[in-house]
Amino acid sequence: MRVLAAMSGGVDSAVAAARAVDAGHEVVGVHMALSRSRAQHRNGSRGCCSIEDAGDARRAADVLGIPYYVWDLSEEFEETVVADFLSEYEAGRTPNPCVRCNEHIKFSALLDRGLALGFDAVVTGHYAQIVEVPDGAGGTRRELHRAADPAKDQSYVLAVMGAHRLARSMFPLGAAPSKEAVRAEAATRGLSVSAKPDSYDICFVADGDTQGFLRDRLGARPGEVVDADGRVLGQHDGAYSYTVGQRKGLGLTRPAADGRPRYVLEVRPQTNQVVVGPSELLTVDELHADQTVWLADDVPAGEWVDAEVQVRAHGEPVAASVRRARSGRTDGTDGGAEGALEARLSVPLRGIAPGQSLVVYAGTRVLGQSTIVSARRGAALRAV
């Protein structure tokens, strides 16, 4: 097959491209330039897709003996991932930009452009597994599963890709036993990135100051900090700087009457208010979500099914009963986007914010993904 290898400049994508070459595919390496500033430099393990990363990707491609190109996707990245990040915080939600980057850039702009150029698939260095199983009709279907190494599993941020794009994706590192094993393989292959530190945090906020980034882009918007009964407790410079579950940085000068710490319970963009209260009000056991992308067409809609849900990239999955709406398209032309999804948790969770990604699992298999709209305390919790 002719495959397009997404090469970030890191060790994972370099080894993934190398394994695709070993498998006999015709591989072309592509580095995605996502920053509008061509002078942007990497700051240690913060940030990615910098000028240094492009150079590292080129050197890896040279070692592998494959063609290499840089594609400027900075406009698409700014107009989708960064714009979504800002609008979500502005609307009082807490987004996951890695999910949106996979949706709009790596498995939309990159894959769709590659298919248009005659490539058969895209290979990336993500840690997840694609498993082919009989579909009951004489054929097979592709399932997305967790990686063999739980510590590196990235299926949570890949669930949004949809069945159509899953069919054209390859994840050669899914069965890798550990990141250390991948680094050792890179060193054996003579790849200079074998000891390069992993990138983390938000790539376009390279200094790690998310609140500073939001202030620079959205400006000061003073408003009130109130309790659950609407009493004014203090002031803030922008409700977008707060997220559900936050304890520090509330700027309150008066302690609660009972002396206990306060947490952000809700962000209300309509009134520019931040609602704070005691920690027990953060505990929820019912989640409502929308913009569902469903990967498992063999799991029926409209019925409650037993599953597990995960609400953070490195969070622990919890058992739940899940029901998704019957409406929506599943042919993959729109990524499999559907409608509402409900989850009743067997174990309550704390600090769940609108905008977070909710991923549904059956064991290691990813069933689908949805975006949380609201989190509630069900009857059992309200009675406590």
Features:
384 residues, alpha/beta, Rossmann fold, SH3 type barrels, six-stranded antiparallel barrel, 9 helices, 25% helix, transferase, methyltransferase activity, tRNA-uridine 2-sulfurtransferase activity
Quick summary:
This protein has about 375 residues and is of the alpha/beta class. Helices cover about 25% and strands about 30% of the residues.
Query: What is the average per-residue confidence, as pLDDT, rounded to a whole number?
Result: 89
Strand content: 25-35%
Spatially, the strands of the biggest sheet line up as: 12-15-14-13-16-17
CATH topology of the largest domain: Rossmann fold
**How would you spell out the order of helices and strands?**
EHEHEHHEEEHHEHHEEEEEEEEEEH
Q: What kind of sheet is the major sheet?
A: 6 strands, antiparallel, barrel
Task: Please state the second-level CATH architecture of the largest domain.
Answer: 3-Layer(aba) Sandwich
Give the terminus-to-terminus CA distance.
59 Å
How many discrete domains?
3
User: What form results from the Cα inertia axes?
Assistant: globular
User: Low-confidence parts lasting 5 or more residues at pLDDT below 50?
Assistant: 328-337
CATH superfamily (homologous) name of the largest domain: HUPs
How large is the count of helical segments? 9
Taking all Cα atoms into account, the compactness measure Rg is 22 Å
Return the structural class: alpha/beta
Q: Helix content range of the residues, please? A: 10-25%
Overall CATH class of the largest domain: Alpha Beta
Q: Report the count of strand segments.
A: 17
